[in-house]
Amino acid sequence: MPIRIPDALPATSILEGENIFVMTEHRAMHQDIRPLRVLLLNLMPTKIVTETQIMRKLSNTPLQIEVELLRIASHQSKNVSADHLETFYRTFDEVKDYRYDGMIITGAPVETLDFETVDYWPELVKIMDWSLTNVHSVFHVCWGAQAALYHHYGVPKHNLDEKCFGVFENRLIKPSSPLVRGFNDVSMMPHSRHSETRYEDIVANQKLEVISYSDECGVSIAKSIDSKHFFVFGHPEYDRDTLKLEYDRDVERGLDIKVPVHYYPNDDPTKAPIVSWRAEGQLIYTNWLNYYVYQTTPYDLEAL
């Protein structure tokens, strides 16, 4: 999938170096088709890393996608330059009058906090409410999934006694779902979180269904019955070294952190991590775009 992103965005040169088809704004203007418009609300502190990881996943079907980056205006990011945010990101006030085929809401390192105590919660609620009328389908990741389930459906999250940290085996609860078309019966997904949304709380709501489950770390994928909302509690977009960098950072800080499980050979952090989630990690984004965005979104977005 050629993704249309600003020519000067750091992700552009990284993805081109991986032989991923990144369409320049100039070339996209000369194609007589309507690209899918996808809004990425990036709540992660490592903005450049996260935007690159997700754009990599949006790049493997024959569709053209125009990706716009959205940030929270009520929270000051400390891990990326103000110049990067001003150049490449928009605020809600700048996009609220537009409509989008799809939207992705990332996770955030605030999962132990009550939702209402997160400093940007009121702004996030405003964006989530706006998405009900201005976005065709929304894909939520990790804490973003927990936040959306809580806000839209009243499903609580629960803090864990021990961090869910590693790469976990998942089995399909609903293998007929187009979202997991092409998945193996058992697949792997990275997780890194201190809280969970429980299976029984999700299925108690008749508007929701669980698609995939891990015996070790609980629900991995769920969605709304109407296919408006998708909830992924792990990180299928993670790179090979993402968990390693997080583990090394916490060790350096002197934190009590266990080695991420099922990630290093024999759980030995002196060895290079093995990627066991790449195929399904790609498929979940591709399937969402194909079956739940491209094939169902109106050609005229004003018809949303």
UniProtKB/TrEMBL annotation:
Pathway: Amino-acid biosynthesis; L-methionine biosynthesis via de novo pathway; O-acetyl-L-homoserine from L-homoserine: step 1/1. The record marks S192 as: Important for substrate specificity. GO terms for cellular component: cytoplasm. The gene is metAA. HAMAP family: MetA_acyltransf (MF_00295). Belongs to the MetA family. Keywords: Acyltransferase, Amino-acid biosynthesis, Cytoplasm, Methionine biosynthesis, Transferase. The lineage of its organism: Bacteria, Bacillati, Actinomycetota, Coriobacteriia, Eggerthellales. This is Homoserine O-acetyltransferase. The keyword Cytoplasm applies. GO terms for molecular function: homoserine O-acetyltransferase activity; homoserine O-succinyltransferase activity. Its main location: cytoplasm. Substrate binds at K163, S192, R249. GO terms for biological process: L-methionine biosynthetic process from homoserine via O-succinyl-L-homoserine and cystathionine. It is found in: Cytoplasm.
